[in-house]
Predict the structure.
Amino acid sequence: MIPLNLETIEEWLRQTDEIRLEPLWAEADAVRKAHVGDAVHLRGLIEISNYCIRQCAYCGLSVTNTQLERYRMTDDEILDCARQARDFGYGTVVLQAGEDYGLEAERIAGLVRAIKSQLSLAVTLSLGERPYEDLAAWRKAGADRYLLRFETSDKELYASIHPPRPGQTVDRMAILRHLRMLGYEVGSGVMIGIPGQSYRTLAHDILHFESFDFDMIGVGPYIPNPQTPLGRGEIAVPIAEEDQVPSDELMTYKVIALTRLVCPQANIPSTTALATINRESGRELGLMRGANIVMPNMTPVAYRTRYEIYPGKACINETAQACQGCLKGRISAIGRVVGDGPGGRIR
Ligand code: 5AD
Ligand code: FES
């Protein structure tokens, strides 16, 4: 029904009339059902370290945030969380951290091998822009998927909020292509409403999801973090006010729905950032407007309060047990079912 190109995507993104948006929600939900069905797959998220050597201008884990107390989980702690994910019936664990070279490549490879052989779970890694040899070693150890959001397709905006690491020669898009070449399922995505992000850029981001044909696409609202330069408003915003994308809930649903339409088979999470800006029903509305994945947090409570990418993060005081009960209840309340098995990309 809806022909999508740069112009029509931008029109949808600018549409704020709830009645006119109804067909977008309906189409996204129908396409989701036709291509990935009613199963909602759960990915147990383990935030294994909050150390980071990078300086992303929006992110609370940035090395410049000296207020944050840092932690790195032990192998035993990580494997205990993974075992709990298996016991909860989750098919995948996601090991996520800042870009932390204190997590040695061989140590991560050993963890991947242990999780694969002892627990038979799919393993997703989300560990930043690591060297190609690390990415290759982890793939060889059995890692199935890798997540690395490209954040924005506007090169100038990207550069203004991502100071490069000295000596870094490859960009994120090249890393994403390399991950695919290594045989990973590749996940990416963007933040919605970054200061300086225009409607046109966001429309380009969505078309980029389509042209790369990502296996997984995570999008969530930008949430200002006062511990960061962008959150404090210290970075100049070079676009007109009427072109600036708002970082609100409605915009997030529009991006989820359009993403489903351009990538019918992708795995699309209803994210924690969305749940943070609407605790009551953000998760559900994401799932009803195109998403088919949720990522329950498995990080031990003592650590999860310190994985503060942005303030007010949902589930910060909940246990893994509480999140699993909560999410399973929310999924069945909207007439969907919890998926079995790894829930990989459908081809
Ligand atoms: N608000 C929303 N999302 C954020 N991320 C990082 N900082 C913020 C923020 N302030 C997102 C980025 C990153 C992912 C792990 O979290 O998109 O890729
Ligand atoms: Fe580490 Fe952003 S500062 S991922």
Summary: The domain at 6-334 is CATH 3.20.20.70 (TIM Barrel). The mean pLDDT is 97. The longest strand covers residues 39-49.
